[in-house]
Specification:
The protein is of the alpha+beta class. The chain has five helices and seven strands, in the order αββββαβαααββ. About 35% of the residues lie in helices and about 15% in strands. Helix 2 (about 100-110) links the parallel strand 4 (about 70-75) and strand 5 (about 120). The longest helix has 22 residues, at about 130-150. It starts with a helix and ends with a strand.
Length: about 210
């Protein structure tokens, strides 16, 4: 939220023609109960899909008596049949190298430990098997990292790697705008490999090129 507030104060808030941006008017602290009369709604910080993503945990018995610890409004973090996009959302004035996939995997495990009775996501439909779904997503990303490492038999850019990765349709059928999203997701996975010491950015490469760690 800090970059949004700073942009607002500096008059740099991006906007579309005819539309005013919706800016935050209050701060929600991770772990705090959101003031809501008669309910227990706790904010759970879940960075990964975006840096500021928050899930809301309704800490109450399920109305249908389902076993588990309340319900989770999961936003885009935990979805029943698709994997959320993990890309790059960075402040161009901040030189910090982020690890959004690492953040997402940590957030997944945090949500998995809640043991909720039901998940209410922002897409698709409500579901009850939160624990198994978390494990599926953890496995999916580990397999994606392993596959990406095999593609680094020779140094490649994120774009070259994205062309060779598996998506929900052939690369030639992906619109150009969506290709940019795919490349940012490839970059997010590459940064995780670098963080794990399994890959490295080639010094001086422009555009940045990645290779297996030596």
């Amino acid at each position: 939220m800090a970059p949004l507030l700073a942009a607002r104060d500096a008059g740099r808030t991006p906007r579309l023609p005819g539309l005013a941006p919706a800016l935050p008017d209050r701060t929600i602290t991770p772990g705090e109960l959101v003031p809501l009369a008669g309910r227990r709604l706790r904010a759970i910080w879940t960075p990964g899909h975006t840096p500021g993503h928050v899930c809301l945990h309704l800490e109450e018995d399920h109305p249908a008596g389902r076993a588990g610890h309340g319900r989770l409004f999961s936003g885009d973090h935990l979805l029943p049949g698709i994997t959320p996009h993990i890309g790059l959302y960075e402040d161009p004035d901040d030189a910090t190298v982020t690890d959004p996939l690492g953040d997402y995997l940590d957030s997944l495990e945090r949500v998995g430990r809640l043991g909720v009775a039901e998940v209410l996501p922002a897409h698709q439909h409500a579901f009850t098997e939160a624990g198994p779904r978390v494990r599926e997503l953890l496995t999916h990303h580990e397999e994606r990292l392993t596959h990406l490492l095999t593609l680094l038999g020779e140094p490649r850019t994120p774009w070259q790697l994205a062309e060779r990765m598996e998506w929900n349709r052939p690369w030639a059928d992906i619109p150009y705008g969506s290709r940019n999203i795919a490349v940012s997701e490839a970059e997010a996975h590459l940064r995780r490999l670098v963080k794990l010491g399994r890959a490295e950015a080639v010094p001086g490469s422009d555009p940045v090129t990645y290779a297996r760690a030596s």
